[in-house]
Amino acid sequence: MTKAKTICVYCASSSRVASLYSEAATRLGSLIARKGMTLVTGGGCQGLMRAVEDGALFNGGKAIGVIPRFMIEAGWQHPSLTELRVTENMHERKKLMADLSDAVIALPGGCGTMEELLEIITWKQLGIYLNPIVILNTGGYYNHLIEQLSHAVEEHFMGEIHGKIWSVASTPEEALSIIETTPAWDASIRKYAAL
Questions:
Q1: CA-to-CA distance for 30 and 166, rounded, in angstroms?
Q2: What's the pTM value of the predicted model, to 2 decimals?
Q3: Residue 155 burial by CB count (10 A; 0-12/13-18/19+): exposed, middle or buried?
Q4: Helix, strand, coil % (nearest 5) of the chain?
Q5: Pick from 107, 146, 110: which is nearest to 20 by CA?
Q6: Residues 153-179: pLDDT tens digits?
Q7: Which of 33, 120, 129, 174 could in theory staple to 56 by disulfide, Cβ–Cβ 3.0 to 4.6 A?
């Protein structure tokens, strides 16, 4: 099973979302801190990103932000993170966030969040990333995306085994429980990437 010490969380930077999303993000951050884990995020100062970061920091946890230089120049970074890593571009940001993490949780978000989630799923399919990936489906937000992923398997764009790359949770508590009970992915499964 995975002994996760560092959890990467993908999430929205929008501050206009319903409160159930920000409440779940804050709760996830606080649970990560209380379990003695370190949070890794995109380092932003708004939306669910701020909520999960503050949830961890206000509960004595560590939060590492990974943010590209152009966002620093725009003043988009959280002012009180434990550590802020600055990258030259978005590609380096995503790579470093993955490298730092023992698991990934995707909270609700827009194109950026979904792009990060789909990329890490692809990396796991290829045996590049072997750690647990959990979709936190707060309020059923990701129902359609989960259905689309299942449809891709049904239509043989992905193998049946690839449907086990990600797990789905309804609550922050369930997401962390899944991480703690999910074994590392077998890199040899990459042979099934080409169907």
A1: 23
A2: 0.96
A3: exposed
A4: 50, 15, 35
A5: 107
A6: 999 999 999 999 999 999 999 999 999
A7: 33
Name 136's bridge partners.
169
Q: How far is the C-alpha of 7 from the C-alpha of 98, rounded, in Å?
A: 9
Residue 16 CA to chain centroid, in angstroms?
20
31 torsion bin: left (phi>0), alpha (psi -120 to 50), beta (else) = alpha
The two counts, helices (H) then strands (E), for the chain are 7, 7
Torsions phi, psi of 65, nearest 5?
A: -105, 140
Q: DSSP character for 58?
A: T
Q: State the DSSP code for 62.
A: E
- Residue 33 CA to chain centroid, in angstroms? 16
What type of residue is 91?
A: H
> Which residues partner with 169 through β-bridges?
136
**Which of 162, 120, 150 shows the shortest CA–CA distance to 10?**
120
Q: Phi-psi region for residue 60, left (φ > 0), alpha (ψ -120 to 50) or beta?
A: left
In contact, 109 and 12? CB cutoff 8 Å: yes
